[in-house]
Specification:
alpha/beta; Spore Coat Polysaccharide Biosynthesis Protein SpsA, Chain A; three-stranded antiparallel β-sheet
Length: 357
């Protein structure tokens, strides 16, 4: 009996020991699995946070890019080039242009435009260059009794800082059906409306330069660096105009003063230069309150009419490397032959009835 009693005690001790060992092992297994679960969850959370961070960063970068576009690249813009790569001159120049100081003069560019098959194509071409010019304000004036949807939509999507105006040319100053277009000047009303807008909205506190940029010209990005240098009235050569490869000023190599002009048409003009070949400081336009274009001026002499009101030959500032570089061309894109389109229009099957061209 006594031996059975001892065996029973030993069995109970052994049972307690085994049960304790089982519970200890079981709890450790649970603990290990718990730790593994926590690590797994932490990893998933980390990956999720990393993905959210990436999406947030991309969203912020997209917002910043939109803001830069809307502000007309007023923020410094940098084109990254790896240190190991050779920096090309184009990237260096673009960085230099994009990082101008905020106190640089704003270029107020006046562009008259009128409805025609090439209108949107011309505006698109020149706007791509204008996007490279920081501190740029585009004043587009339509020769129309109201703002057209084509130009309105185009400007809204251009990415440029702009003002959209309209001013129809009086019917008496428009060419008749069989009358040559060159007999009646274009852009007089539109340029004057733009000048009146400038005088009504800007004052002596604004730092700017006025430039007249027709929509049928071709512009180099380098031109805008020259325009910013204008103190009162700056002048430079223009390509493919006046029957010459280059028409424009001749400058002294040392003083940069204008000493003469290269010209073949109306050589007795006081300022034998194309509309694209000069710019006027904003303060001069504000000082000369009555300086405008006139319908009484013969076609081809409008540059002389406005320049005679604001400057003299002696005051002209020869730019573009001493008047030796051409940064603007009077290209005048030829009107396309749309005879097939006219036939379709008569049949009511125009190709651009639902597509804006």
């Amino acid at each position: 009996m006594e031996s059975n009693h001892y065996c029973c005690i030993i069995y109970k001790i052994w049972q307690f020991f085994i049960r304790s060992l089982y519970l200890i092992c079981h709890s450790r297994i649970i603990l290990v699995f718990g730790l593994l679960f926590v690590v797994w969850q932490s990893y998933n959370n980390f990956e999720a946070q990393k993905e959210l961070y990436r999406l947030a960063r991309e969203s912020l970068e997209a917002i910043r890019a939109d803001l830069i576009t809307l502000k007309n690249i007023h923020e410094p813009l940098y084109v990254h080039v790896p240190p190991s790569a050779e920096t090309c001159s184009c990237a260096s120049e673009y960085n230099k242009i994009g990082n101008v100081s905020s106190d640089y003069p704003t270029i107020y560019t006046i562009t008259p435009t009128f409805a025609r098959p090439l209108q949107k194509a011309e505006l698109t071409r020149i706007s791509q260059t204008f996007l490279l010019a920081p501190n740029f304000h585009w004043i587009v004036v339509e020769d129309s009794p109201n703002k057209t949807s084509l130009v309105t939509n185009f400007l809204a999507q251009s990415g440029l800082n702009y003002t959209h105006l309209y001013a129809p040319t009086p019917s008496k100053h428009k060419p008749g059906k069989n009358e040559p277009k060159w007999k009646h000047p274009r852009g007089v009303e539109q340029r004057n409306v733009a000048l009146r807008w400038i005088r009504a909205n800007l004052n002596e506190r604004h730092n700017g330069v006025i430039y007249f940029a027709d929509d049928d010209n071709t512009y180099s990005r380098h031109l805008f660096q020259e325009i910013r240098k204008v103190k009162r009235v700056g002048i430079w050569p223009v390509g493919l105009v006046g029957g010459l490869m280059v028409e424009g000023p001749i400058c002294d190599k040392v003083t940069k003063k204008v000493t003469g002009f290269k010209t073949a048409w109306a050589t007795n003009r006081p300022f034998p230069i194309d509309m694209a070949g000069f710019a006027i400081n904003l303060q001069v336009i504000l000082e000369k309150k009555n300086a405008e274009f006139s319908y009484k001026t013969l076609n081809g002499l409008h540059e002389n009419h406005i320049l005679r009101q604001v400057t003299t030959r002696e005051e002209l500032e020869g730019l573009a490397n001493g008047c030796t570089k051409v940064y603007v061309w009077h290209t005048q894109t030829s009107t396309p032959d749309l005879h097939a389109e006219k036939k379709l229009e008569k049949q009511g099957k125009s190709t651009n009835s639902v597509i804006e061209v």
